[in-house]
Amino acid sequence: MVTFKEMRIQHIVEDASLATEDKIRQLREIEDEARALQRAASESPMNADDGWEADLREVRIALSRLGAKDIRKGAASL
Question: Is the sign of the CA dihedral 25, 27, 31, 34 positive or negative?
Fold first, then answer.
């Protein structure tokens, strides 16, 4: 099953009207949101495997393909 975030990531990557820098900026915003949600899940009784890791993996793959620098690795931490 494809998640909304995965669809959003694909839409950004395939959008020919966006410059690469704009795509990277938008993907960074998604990455930051996914990291924050992952961190919140790890600090609360939420299910820690709500798909946040998959979202992070997908956005990081897209960032890498676009040639983004300083791609963060590992889990979100405080």
Answer: positive
